[in-house]
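User: I'm new to structure prediction. If I give you an amino acid sequence, what do you actually give back? Let's try with this one:
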Amino acid sequence: MLLDLEKVNIEKAINLFAHNQNFTYTAYPRLKTLYAIKKEFKHIPELDWKFEFDHVNVNKNRVVIEYRQSKSEDFSFYYEIPLLVNFELRVFLAKSSIHFLDLYNFLLSNDIIKENQFKLKAEYHTIPHFIINQKVKRYNTGILNKIQNNTDFDGLPVDDNIKNEIDLGFQFFNPIFNQILSQFQI
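Assistant: Good question. You get back a string of structure tokens that encode the predicted 3D arrangement of the chain. For your 186 residues, that looks like this:
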């Protein structure tokens, strides 16, 4: 279940999963890191930040940043950040493989992106997506340690490297989402 990335929901999650080491030492500090970063992007109202934690399947632990739009119900654009040890920023252009392939071909044929510009991940059980973080692959452990021990959600330090990587993704892909919507007008 996806919950809004808000202080009250993060606190509920820590109360619910305090016994779970993966949540306590991996997911929780990253959730708080991304919560602090989310506050830096209030100027982009189209973004809807949510998180999910599954104590059984760690591959479902993630923050989802949906690019809200009202032009088409057929398109679903969103970013995903797995709540794992390493940082990864993913971009999904659709909720199905068929739509993704059509959109990917459109982006290539119109020189909006170049082939191999971003790592493309497509597996049998996963919707194809781009991995777009270029420089940052790890969270700053010093900041994670400060965040994990800090109970004040309003005074959380911001991991600027992660924030900048996310910002670059937003600057590149948000206009692409709008271009796709304008082109297809479904």
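You can read the tokens as a compact description of the fold. Here is one thing that stands out. The beta strands are 3-4, 47-52, 62-67, 77-82, 90-92, 119-123, 126-131.
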